[in-house]
Amino acid sequence: MVDEMIYKSIIESFLNNIQYRNRTYSAYGMIIRTSHKSRKEVQKQASSITVPRPTRKSPFFHLHLREMKDRPIIDVVIPAFNEENAIGNVLRDIPMDWVREVVVCNNLSTDQTARIAAEAGATVVDAPIQGYGNACLFGLAHIAKKEQHPDIVVFLDADYSDHPEQLPEVVAPIIQENFDLVIGSRALGDLERGAMTPQQIFGNWLATNLIQLFYGYRFTDLGPFRAIRYDSLLALDMKDKTYGWTVEMQVKAAKQKMKCTEIPVNYRVRIGFSKVSGTIKGTIGAGQKILWTIFKYL
Q1: Could you confirm whether domain 74-296 is CATH 3.40.50.300?
Q2: What is the model's pTM?
Q3: Which of 126, 137, 163, 222 has the greatest number of beta carbons closer than 10 A?
């Protein structure tokens, strides 16, 4: 059996990703109230928890991978365009004991992204039509051809702004609480200074508030790091080929009354230059597409 201290460290790691505001969080089934408490106080509370041994009824059972005979099949999709300096780091940090296959969707890269990804053990799928959504769609087409489909698909970016090691936290609500869609929220997590531009932060705030206004679902982010049940993903019938991919997923999930949630994720300054937020054209184009997608499905 895994020592109890390992599970306590998992709780503490989870809590380290939380912005301590006036709210209550459920850390793998254990309720931690954070109102008016400092980070040290909450971590002290977590360290005092008596953690049960991992039985099938335990909220920690899904974390004990070596003893799980019925673990879900998880595939990871990573759209990538000229990320040779970052993709190796992303692939290195993915906890591969949780994952069946990592699919890097090479979206017309002119550098060594594809070679580095393949050497790191990823499956490289060429996505010959430019666009974030296009890259994701080519990755999903590859998964659809498999004899055994995954239970869960995880999406994250190739620029090393996400923290791939948080994948177990992102999929936990699906495994443990039967959610359909889990968004890794940068707004709730530890956002490194400079990791998001002011226009990105404002755009996320505006888009998520419009989704709440028109669709009745409360999100705090349109973040790229997310997990979704494969059958739920198929039901969404994703179409967007460019900047509207993430918001289309959330809007359609809201329209179909899927069970959605968010968990805090950390976010750092990306490696390299952003092709979207790093240019005026990209920023305006992404903003227009996101807003258009929200109104399109009303």
Answers
A1: no
A2: 0.78
A3: 222
